[in-house]
Write a structure and sequence with these properties.
The structure holds 2 protein chains of 2 kinds. Chain A is an alpha/beta fold. Chain A has 8 helices and 12 strands. In chain A, strands 2-1-3-4-5 form a 5-stranded parallel β-sheet, sandwiched between helices. In chain A, helix 6 packs across helix 8. By secondary structure, chain B is of the alpha+beta class. In chain B, 59% of the residues lie in helices and 16% in strands. In chain B, a hairpin with a 3-residue loop joins strand 11 and strand 12. The mean pLDDT of chain B is 81. Classes of the chains: A alpha/beta, B alpha+beta. At the A-B interface, helix 1 and strand 10 of A face helix 4, helix 5 and helix 8 of B.
Amino acid sequence: MIRILIVEDEPPISGLIQMNLKRNGYECDVASDGEQAADKIEQNRYDLILLDIMLPKINGYELIDYIRPLEIPVIFITAKNDLQDRVKGLKLGAEDYIVKPFEIIELLARVEVVLRRYKKTNTVINIEDVSIDTEARRVTKNGTPVDLTIKEYDLLLLLVRNPGIALFRETLFERVWGYDYIGETRTLDSHVQRLRRKLGWEDKIKTVYKIGYRLDLKNGNGQKS
Amino acid sequence: MKLYTIVFCCIITVICAFTAFGLGRQYGEIIEKSTDECIKSAQYSHALKASELESRLIFIRAKYNTLPSTSEIVAYAADCTLYDKDGNLLCGNTKLPALPQYGGVLLQSEGNTVTAASRLSNGMYIVTEYYSGIEDLRSELSRQLILFCALTVCCCIPVFAAGLVAVYLSRRRLKRGMRAAAEGDYSVRISGCELAGDFNAMAQAVSDNVVQVNKAAAAQHDFVANFSHELKTPLTAIIGYADLLRSAELDGEDAFIAASYIFSEGKRLESLSLKLMDMIVLDKQEFPMRPLPAGKLLQHIAITVRPMLSTAELSLEFHAAASRIEGDRDLLTTLIMNLLDNARKASENGGKIILRGTVEGDRYRVSIQDFGRGIPPEELGRITEAFYMVDKSRARAQHGAGLGLALAQRIALLHGSSLEFKSQPGQGTEVSFTLKRIPKPKEAAENEKKDRA
């Protein structure tokens, strides 16, 4: 189990992050101020820390000095969008930062990237009969290689990482084709069609009427180790 | 400055030149006149001497019927020079300038003497010398003229030079000052030139303005930064929970939590936007001050807030002196309600809040006292800043946006007052402000009487 500490003084935000991380199979702990965070870091082992900068008692910048020797990766969560603040955070040793207001899917993607960088996640994701080697970007079904285009692969990864969640068409476009993509909407549908056919997942990648697509697995949640 | 100095110098030079010229001419005239006088005097004295000698000659000739001998004549001719008819010197030492004709006097002014020569009846030449002092006078006058010119030049040159130096220096100082100001250093001050005062006043005005503009910009920046933070947190929560609700099938409890957060964060945004609108209105609008009965105003507010306080099991004590005050009814209501709301938030259930109105000379003091948690002394200076919260998590729980006291302070300022806090952590807070009283006609008359007495 991957353990993540959320240091955030706003209960609505920490609750939101916690709810989403739990759904993705992470174990979460919340600290609502700097002191509490320092205590928790001392007592427990964490794989990743999500750290708000504006905190009561001990602020995020001070806290990261305390965390650095422990070699736990940190992602800053900040309401400040100044370049200065971001650079300061990264210079102090944060792995990444995310600016409020953020979308959860973006936060999850960044968490995934940082964990992979620290080799905390398995580089191979096994879902039913399909295995995805995220390092080699290779997909096999029952040991037989499946040939996917780059877009098809990205689409598959996005679905696999958000199982049970209806991914909206615009979200899929944004994540796979990039923010500025204004293409024919058929492109997405045809990619999904080909992905279903190549993996034999006609029943698993569900069309959500008027919204988008959702990956339905038998056990409901993704498998994270 | 420069032009002024140059014109001044030119005028002085011209005046001096004219004076010197005039003096020169006058001196010339004086010398001419003196020369004339002297020549006349010389002629006169010569005539005297010549006629004396002539009369002796005539006397001797008449008495002795013979011409006197040369030696006799020489004996008579004291202090004059005689030449015989061939021009040979007989006595004396004055040169014969030229040979004068009979009956005429030859006059010559040379140096300090005027020489007069004439012919006697015996054919001899008589020459007399007359001391005129013309040369001395001339040299004296020209010395004076030279002295005058020299003095004038000596005076003008330093003045002119000083003027030029002053112009140059002040130009350089001004230039330096202006360059510094142009580069944004408004603290530069210059000295030692006539325009320094003006320049410094200008620089001071500019630097005061810049300081004020910078302060306003910093305040604006802080406000925007705080505002965006206050806005982003609820927005992140609302967007995030709504996204979760629409994308995933949440179980009952999670769905309830998500919906509650969306509701409470939405409320927070609402309260923030209402307070902000109040502040914007306060900034934009002008409020006419009207006479109000203070006692009734406070009583009305007390009646309005009692139900709200009783749900929190708080009691309200109310003492208000009757007086007429000047203010805006709606704004004062907003202000007092805000302060009462703060008192409510600070109090424990079952506590007490006191609303007081007292007369203090020509002011009316409104104070709100609670016996709640109090404010730490180090926070007192900042609590009226927009978005400043002493206890953020408590403020959150009560949907506070951190704008209530900032708003209250602005209203108090509009009424010519300012919020005053007395607080003791753990014992409570008393916040008060004052309003301008309007004396009753009777009171006013009494005051006038007192003044007269």
